[in-house]
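Exercise: predict the fold of this chain.
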Amino acid sequence: MKKYIAISVFIVVSALSNAQNRRKLDTIYANDQKNTALFFPQPITQGITGSTQFVFTYNREKQQNFGLLQATPGEESNLLVICGNSIYSYIVKYKKQLSRLNYFITESESIGNLKSTSPISKEQSEPKKNVTNKENHYKKYAAFLLSKKQRKSSLNKRNQGVVLSIENIVFNTSELYFVIQVSNESSLDFDLNFLNLSIQTRQRGKRTSVQTLLEQPILQYNVPALIKADDTKRFVYVFSKFSISKDQKAVLELNEKNGARNVALKISHRSINNPD
């Protein structure tokens, strides 16, 4: 497996090196207010940016010919996109005002082709690679959301100086990203025991009861173990896409280790079913 990865990296690096000797890379501009769309002649199999301030999203489940680029202010970086065996490479820069939102890429812009020399079969090599690519995408998009200034949210709950807030719920590809903030306004440090999201369904009948189902996150990004007194921490929970009915509520529960400053924040179906 290590040999296969080394060969693949060598091929990509060689192709990029040769291409850069032939011509200067084109520049694509993006910002955090609008989506810059890139349309390729073939379905996208992989897209990688050089820094977390740039996020390139595309459909990993059902390969499509277009992807979306967003950026936050900072230094320029690069974007590498692979479509089948064709390789495309661009310089990417943040620009506050965009004069162009759509880029239609032609085959002539390809900087080279991938040539597989590894004897490892597709079935052997792809599953682990796909899992890694997905996790990297979740992390990069979570970092991107934390780098953006979120609007002030009304979704918050307080208990003894500890404030639990949901800054935003964002839908991307096929996942829901919960941007969460915990503020410790008390004079004692807060040791985080767990933070869970569950779905509560009210069962109607002779006796009303509540059924609770725990939602398992597919990624917890930047979650702290300790929130010091007079400090605030922001982090992201990523879940597979879900929705809830009017009879259901989502509950985000913050639990203190060896303490009683627990917070339960109820979230309506409107907030879950209408993400950004």
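Check your answer against the key: Residues 1-22, 117-125 have pLDDT under 50 and may be disordered.
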